[in-house]
Structures are given as structure tokens and as C-alpha cells.
Fold this sequence. Notes:
The protein is mainly α. It is built from twelve helices and two strands. Helices cover about 75% and strands about 0% of the residues. It has a two-stranded antiparallel ribbon with strand order 1-2. Helix 1 runs parallel beside helix 8 (about 225-235) and helix 11 (about 255-275) packs antiparallel against helix 12.
Amino acid sequence: MHVTPLVWWITILVTSAILIVDVFVIGRRPHEPSRRETVLALSLFVGLAMIFGLGVWMIAGGEYGGEFYAGWLTEYSLSIDNLFIFIVIMNKLNVPRDLQQSALLIGIVLALVLRGVFIAVGAAAIQEFSWVFYLFGLFLVVTAVNLARESGEEEGGYDEPRLVRWARSHLRLSEAWHGAKLTVHEGGARHFTPMFIVILTLGMTDLLFALDSIPAIYGLTSEPYLVLTANVFALMGLRQLYFLIGDLLQRLVYLSYGLAFLLLFIGVKLFLHAMHENTLPFVNGGEHISWAPDIPIWVSLVVIVGTLAVTTGLSLAADRRRTPV
């Protein structure tokens, strides 16, 4: 897929403009969004993603269009699972409801920057070393097993990132909330506010999530442009999704199992791709393994959509059985 520098710059400028407008609006009026507001914003971002995918399909072909949709759906699904941790963080840090939107927005912008670095590093590694797919595949398989084992654990199992613990013990921290401000002048000295700790926690947590999501999407497409745009669209709607389906998340009891299966599937797909492109001298003499097929993108799309549909259906059915009539 050939993407000109002009297209890269237009994409970056347009997405940056959307984020800047969102930050400006939210920064001026921190509040808990209404259901109508979240539905409209979420519909806008989902609609933009669908239109963008159609554009890729028409300009670059169905293969690349399918790769974008598969990557976007996977990133969005992993982001929904991340919302569980975000809810835990907000509860543990006692973030006021009217400030949660500001915290999420700034944390997501930071996450976009950090993921951009991960995407660039991953693209460079894949370009130079095809065997990196073996590492990505192994990482996803291990992650899938751990995710399946940890499913159903209590929220109290969440551990604060080490950098956040360091900040608590080494920085001057204010006890009071001061809106969306990150620092405040108290007692003749500059102090960091609780909002700073919240944003730092969200940013570091999402960075850890990127360790799963970036290899996962590279298992669906090797095009850095599609990897970046799929992540951008997934994170753009994450804040609205947090407020829209916060209570619904508690009902998706099998979501983690479904995501574990998806990560396992993509991990196996990466292994097969690595075997197909093999250059390691101690594996089949450095020759590609002819019997190892590349799984077509349409198969990946069917597996992703089917897994999410079955997971959601089983979760809601289990919730109805638990809920007294």
C-alpha cells in the first residue's frame, strides 16, 4: 500500500484538529456528558471510521479495506476491555464525575502519542527483521493465556504503575481537587494536583495496553498507516464509550474470554505468517515453510465479528439468568 507523504500529513492534521477541538471544548467546560451528547459523539467517530474504511477500500482495494476494518474492530474490542481498568482507576482515585471526561480525554491524547512511538518502532522492526513476527506471536499467545486466567478477578487486583507510586512518594501533591489543573501554587510552593496523578495513571496504563494492541494489529496488517489510523479511531471513541456503557461493561462477563481467544487466534496467525516468510537459519534451514498458509483477511474479519457477537450474546444471556425477574 503506497501512502504519499501528503496523505500522511493530511491524516495527521485532520485527526489532530479533531482532538484539539475536543480538548478545547472539554477543557473549558468540564462536566459529565449526557446520554444524548455521548451517543452523538460516538456515532460521529464510528461513522468517520466506517467512511474512512470505505475510502481505503475504494482507493487501495478490498484487501487493505478489510485490514483496516479488522484492525479497527480488534483495537476497539481491546479498548472496551480497557474500560474495566479505567473504571477501577476512577473509583480508586475518587475522581469527581464532572472531571472524569477531562481526565479521560487528556489521558487518551497522551496514549495516542505513546502508541505512535510503538507503531513506528514496530514498523521499523518488521521492515528489518521478519522473524519479529515470531516474537509478536509468542507474546500474544502468552497474553491470551494470562487474560483467560485472570478473567473474573476482583477489581481490587489492580496495581498502580510504578511511575505513579514514585510520583506519590517524591513529588509535592495537593490533597484538594482544582478542576482540570495539573499543578497549583500552595503554601509558597508548586504542588501537583490529584488530576495529575489520574492522568499519569491513565497514560501509563494505556501504554501497557499498547504492548498487547500493537502486536495484535500488526498480525492483521503490516501497513503502518492502517495501524495508526485504526488506533486513532479506536481511541477517539473510547471516552464516549466509557460514559455510555459504563454499567453495561459489568454485564459483559465473557468479554475477556472472547478477547483472549482473539489474541490467541492472531498470535497463531502471526506464527503462520512468520513461518511463511521465515529467514531464521535454524528453522527449516532459513527457507520459508511452504505448508504454512497466510490466513486471508476475510477469515480474520469473520472470526473477529463472530467472536464478538457470540461473546456479547452469551454475556447478556448469562446476565439475564442472574437478574431476578
